[in-house]
Write a structure and sequence with these properties.
- The complex is a heterodimer of chains A (146) and B (114).
- Chain A has 146 residues and is of the alpha+beta class.
- Chain A is 31% helix and 27% strand.
- Chain A contains 3 helices and 5 strands; from the N terminus they run βααββαββ.
- Chain A is globular.
- The longest helix of chain B has 13 residues, at 56-68.
- The radius of gyration of chain B is 13 Å and the shape is globular.
- Classes of the chains: A alpha+beta (146), B alpha/beta (114).
Chain lengths: 146, 114
């Protein structure tokens, strides 16, 4: 089924400003692009959720001080699922974040509930086969949605 | 951030008129709701039916809103879409908020407010 031609299997390639507004617009672009595949609505939702977290992390932690804070996203069909790659020119990703995350505790008093720390837990809950590379000052993060 | 508000008896229903609660809008969402719930002591229901995207910043904003409610009140969320429900379940926050399939009866949705 899956074609060997990487160009043919490419669903989306985009470059956009590494800002919260840029991420918001890009999530909408990805949603519109994946909406053509009605059989995959569940996976499309997972892509939006994970990509939202990954891109917002880039905006908040990798590129906030970059002179030109761009982000690139590529989504390809894979067998099985979808393969997603993000690239940015920001600070390196701390390796510990790749090895998993625990969910913040939701027990106890309302006043003690966490208001953050969910992002990497959500990413690891849904994404598979995560690979991170840094080459010539560019971060590359790749992962699959099955 | 556009949020409609309707008070029925002692239940305040807030209808989010935006399609997302995300990192770009989380602070505005919190501040808008703060202005709507200040000095109110009854139940607060947020009608989420127009929200088709929630990220972890938006989730954090919902937690922050619940902390604005004193007296141990739970924040109630009605008509959550599939992405919102998935994010709540993954983080187990579905056990923290009170979820409703429909806007609780007797509570007017801000949707039909004039």
């Amino acid at each position: 089924m899956g074609s060997a031609n990487p160009v043919e299997d490419r669903l989306l390639t985009a470059r956009f400003p590494g800002t919260a507004e840029g991420v918001r617009e890009q999530i909408q672009v990805v949603r519109d692009r994946l909406a053509h595949d009605p059989d995959d609505s569940d996976r499309a939702e997972d892509v939006l959720i994970v990509l939202g977290e990954v891109l917002n992390n880039i905006v908040e932690h990798a590129v906030p001080d970059a002179a030109d804070p761009w982000i690139e996203v590529e989504i390809r069909r894979d067998t099985p699922g979808l393969r997603v790659e993000t690239r940015d020119p920001g600070r390196p990703l701390p390796p510990a974040l790749l090895s998993g995350a625990s969910t913040p505790s939701v027990e106890g008093e309302v006043a003690d509930l966490p208001e953050g720390g969910f992002g990497w837990f959500i990413i690891h809950s849904l994404a598979h086969d995560m690979i991170y590379e840094r080459q010539e000052g560019t971060n590359r993060l790749m992962f699959s949605l099955l | 951030m556009d949020i409609d508000s309707k008070l029925t008896d002692d239940v305040l229903c807030l209808t989010v008129q935006e399609s997302r609660i995300d990192a770009a809008g989380a602070v505005a969402f919190k501040e808008k709701i703060r202005s709507l719930v200040t000095d109110f002591s009854g139940r607060v229901v947020i009608d989420m039916h127009k929200v088709d995207f929630l990220d972890s910043s938006g989730l954090g904003a919902l937690v922050a809103v619940m902390k604005m409610l004193d007296g141990g009140r739970r924040l109630e969320l009605a008509r959550c879409g599939t992405i919102v429900r998935k994010v709540l379940m993954l983080t187990r926050m579905d056990s923290v908020f009170e979820l409703h399939e429909t806007v609780p009866s007797g509570v007017g949705s801000g949707q039909d407010a004039a």
